[in-house]
Amino acid sequence: MNTVNAPDSSFDPASLGKVGVLFGGRSAERDVSIMSGTGVLAALQSRGVDAHPFDPGTQSLAELADQHFDRVFIALHGRYGEDGSLQGALEQLGIPYTGSGVMASSVGMDKITTKKIWKIDEIPTPDYMAIDASTDLDEVLVALGLPLIVKPPLEGSTIGITKVNKAEELKAAVDLAAGFDEVVLAEEFVTGREFTVAVLGTGKTARALPIVEIVAPEGNYDYQNKYFTDDTLYHCPAQLDDVLTEEIQRHAVNAYRALGCEGWGRVDVLVRESDMRPFLLEVNTSPGMTSHSLVPMAARAVGISYEDLCLEILASSRLKMPKAKG
């Protein structure tokens, strides 16, 4: 799978104009977004970009319009920033932006809809059920077995997620996830190794960066172990044979394309230990850019600095909806 190159040395960052870095927001991932955005802002400024911070969580869309940004880098995670709602507003305001458009952002944010599309396209993903107030939980246990994973389908960063080992634990797990979303995702638990694949580009140009393996304490890659500990180990490039590496990267790029993603993203993957078969879990259309984040780590493995990565992503910003004729 081809990887990316750093931006051409002749590229003039000043040509990008006045840039807004959007971070903070109103989601449960606000704190992580602030860390991501602060890093992106500093990186762009260090390369001569006229970049300015903007927090949609405390500033209005009217204020965003008044800034007259030529383009924006979206460093928001979760609801109102990664789910298509902000992307729609930017389309209305005519401000080019990084990452996926309205539809791909919305679909990618919804893990249930994502899995429906992947199943149709024969992209391997764990079996699942959508649970609402009318669902018989005994049927979930029969269909998926134990252990299983319960999570809110519209949240990220492992927020509201529970591993259910016993039947009597299922209701509490569903109640926890239902505190975030009315419909809850129950998913077959896959025992194996955890990986992630960063993807850059759009359509036929989309390509994978080296695979990162995540080795968390006791296999628990939760919110704390993602962002606030040095105990989690990362191996990049992951120690896999060439055939499996190609297979995982191919599935990741196909999964990214199937949702219509563009610009950049990250696909999370589990490889089942019993047969080394990969299963795709979700796509992140606005991945983390913190000191612990995985996309910058994968970029470094092919010689792309954090600053050059930010520049490349920013340079890909555009409006996705065609202008109406008339």
Automatic annotation (TrEMBL):
It catalyses: 2 D-alanine + ATP = D-alanyl-D-alanine + ADP + phosphate + H(+). Mg(2+) 2 binds at E282, N284. Keywords: ATP-binding, Cell shape, Cell wall biogenesis/degradation, Cytoplasm, Ligase, Magnesium, Manganese, Metal-binding, Nucleotide-binding, Peptidoglycan synthesis. It is found in: Cytoplasm. It is an enzyme of class 6 (ligase). Its cofactor is Mn(2+); Mg(2+). The keyword Magnesium applies. Gene3D superfamilies: 3.40.50.20, ATP-grasp fold, A domain (3.30.1490.20), ATP-grasp fold, B domain (3.30.470.20). GO terms for biological process: cell wall organization; peptidoglycan biosynthetic process; regulation of cell shape. Mg(2+) 1 binds at D268, E282. One of its GO terms (molecular function) is ATP binding. Pathway: Cell wall biogenesis; peptidoglycan biosynthesis. One of its GO terms (cellular component) is cytosol. Its EC number is 6.3.2.4. Residues 115-315 form the ATP-grasp domain. The active site is at E29, S157, S293. Binds 2 magnesium or manganese ions per subunit. PROSITE patterns: ATP_GRASP (PS50975), DALA_DALA_LIGASE_1 (PS00843), DALA_DALA_LIGASE_2 (PS00844). Its main location: cytoplasm. Belongs to the D-alanine--D-alanine ligase family. Cell wall formation. HAMAP family: Dala_Dala_lig (MF_00047). This is D-alanine--D-alanine ligase.
